[in-house]
Amino acid sequence: MPKIVNHEERREQIMAAIRRVIAHGQINDATIRVIAREAGCSAGVLAHYFRDKDEMMTSALRWSHKGIRARQSEKLASLRGLAALRELLLDNLPLDEERTVETRLEVSYWSRALGSQQILDVQRQEAALLYDKIRSLLKEARDLGQIRRDVQLDDATEVFLALIDGLSVHALLYPDRLTREMAERLMLGELERLVVGTSIEDIGPSDPVPR
Amino acid sequence: MPKIVNHEERREQIMAAIRRVIAHGQINDATIRVIAREAGCSAGVLAHYFRDKDEMMTSALRWSHKGIRARQSEKLASLRGLAALRELLLDNLPLDEERTVETRLEVSYWSRALGSQQILDVQRQEAALLYDKIRSLLKEARDLGQIRRDVQLDDATEVFLALIDGLSVHALLYPDRLTREMAERLMLGELERLVVGTSIEDIGPSDPVPR
Amino acid sequence: MPKIVNHEERREQIMAAIRRVIAHGQINDATIRVIAREAGCSAGVLAHYFRDKDEMMTSALRWSHKGIRARQSEKLASLRGLAALRELLLDNLPLDEERTVETRLEVSYWSRALGSQQILDVQRQEAALLYDKIRSLLKEARDLGQIRRDVQLDDATEVFLALIDGLSVHALLYPDRLTREMAERLMLGELERLVVGTSIEDIGPSDPVPR
Amino acid sequence: MPKIVNHEERREQIMAAIRRVIAHGQINDATIRVIAREAGCSAGVLAHYFRDKDEMMTSALRWSHKGIRARQSEKLASLRGLAALRELLLDNLPLDEERTVETRLEVSYWSRALGSQQILDVQRQEAALLYDKIRSLLKEARDLGQIRRDVQLDDATEVFLALIDGLSVHALLYPDRLTREMAERLMLGELERLVVGTSIEDIGPSDPVPR
DNA sequence: CATGAATGAGTGTTCATTCAT
DNA sequence: TATGAATGAACACTCATTCAT
Predict the structure, then answer these.
(1) What is the DSSP letter of D175?
(2) Yes or no: is domain C53-198 CATH 1.25.40.10?
(3) Cβ–Cβ contact B124 with A under 8 A
(4) In chain A, where are the structural domains located?
(5) C-alpha angle with apex B198: B196 to B201, nearest 5 degrees?
(6) C34, closest nucleotide (Cα–C1')
(7) Which residue among A71, B154, C3, C94 is least packed, with the fewest CB closer than 10 Å?
(8) The pTM of the whole model exceeds 0.85
(9) Domain A61-203: which topology?
């Protein structure tokens, strides 16, 4: 029998290497050779696990999205409505190292998406999932009477999505101006505006996560 | 000093070529040869006007910023307070072809900024200018009694900056989801929230620009 | 000795795969991986049956020659002199799919022979066998009084060998110009020139093979 | 002004290098780096003169054909009919070093033609030119009463083409068996068969060229 | 100033081969 | 035996840069 290798596991090791490379520098640094060195293998081995570099990069993006979704699923598992929305919005900000890396990756791929339909599709699809999640949580919160009845779901969703990416890119590029604390506070402030009668603080502390 | 005029003119032709190249495809397509062809000159000539490619790309970014500032200066020349702020916020959205190209360029450079201190500095500096402008207009509007007294200037400025880039990147990548009209409406909606007693419509129509 | 039988059987499967690969495309397409896939086995297995790729390719050529010889032996088993020569000459032309594949293989290896003494030796050896066979059949035909007494055996043999490969390569590369029918007719015409007093048609029909 | 380089001259230098590389070894040895070294320049420079390697190889083949045609044009300039035909047939055999190199090149490309429509087209086109030339000279010779009235032009042309390539490939691969002298003699013998009443020797000596 | 030829490092990719399992 | 993972060199090609003209 041949050397037993978990194919998917190996792919993930390589995708993790891509992630680290992009996290350290810029996406253009992610060459086959650099990725291979970061993954601790030779350049040729990458060909066993990815058709070509495009698939490697696209897969790395999808894999990052998958990880984010898994974490958010867990975080939101026991939450509903406003509390869940609050967790989701904050989780999409680069408030710790892990999420900062995710944001770097995302921003890096935006520029690639401008020239690659495939990458654009991956991002569009993921953005649509986030859109749906936010919108459904907004609706749930409204149905639960946690936020104002007159909130326009579609508009509010778009604004939150814009704030997520806007605050994220600014916290990433200008961390001295927009600290993690400020980003979190501003996002919570926007959420509080929708809340009926009560202050956002009543929802509970952000960290640790309320359950 | 005709030489200097020609020199700068030639630089601008080249930077305009870079802009067009990035507008068509992605920033990685902007190679020396492609830029030279787009500028209608030979590849070697670029070396006379720029130290190296990094300076070329950085200069092209600065030049784009300069053009944006010039346009906004003109638009805001006869406006004060809320009306001026409104113009400024809308001008920073990709609501026409020209500004869409500017947004493409900006987003493209974000990914470069993650690996280049020089580009990062250029963007940080420009962001600081926009920050100051928005904040001072917010203050002016508040002093004029156009917006609520309790508006936190720094926080509101950050939120508007986040909305600018968040709505911009979404309008750029997902134009089917976030149309230009929606982006404009959502931005105006956020501004309206700050206005005292009156609706945003009272400020005047967006197009033509009120003077 | 069943192992040895299986071993040779496996070798033949692989060599048959090489033949099919070359038949489809060009000899440079015959990579280890492609051959393995065509043979329905893994790439590594080939190392068990051939020292290296050179031996694989050389063996495939030898195997093709062996097959051709076997077919011709059978065809000529009950023939003598002119009739046998006629069969042999026609069998060396790409007049059906099988022999077209053989010709593709042969022509492909010519170019390899220019850089590989080993392949050159294989081809030289096979060419010598064909030379001897043609010459001996010519002599037999002459001794039988079927062809003219003044035929120079060596010269005529060389001319037939040249016609075989010349007509073959042209029928292969330019089938629209030199059809199979023309190639067969021209070869028979050349043979007829040697025949005494009688027409080549007297020898008998070409298909089915006279016995 | 830039360094003045005769573009076509430089292309020819490179194509000559390709020719030499193939002449020394096999066509697969003709890699970009080897060709560049043989041409005495860096690998990158080849990109200035050829779109890609395919164009390089195809151009080298066309250039070889062009040289052959030029030589034959000169040789045949003052000849007609049988004498011209004789010169043409002999010129297409590898009877000296120059023509041996040409033959090596041609045989090498045959195998490429099996997988490249472009190369096949180049060869087919050249073969068609040679076909036309031989046929027209045969007709001229027949009209001049130099060869038999009953010669079938198309058939005879095909036979001569087959002999050219057949004798060439054998003289190339098996020079010990088929010497240059034999190849020449056999070709002349085939031509003599067509001549009326007279021996081929009456046409004149082969070298020097009769004028 | 302008040219474009030339360079050489670097790109993604392919491939024959080796080897632990 | 058989596997297929791994290697590392070689491949064609691209690119920013240099420089003689």
Answers:
(1) T
(2) no
(3) yes
(4) 1-50, 61-203
(5) 125
(6) E15
(7) C3
(8) yes
(9) Tetracycline Repressor; domain 2 (1.10.357)
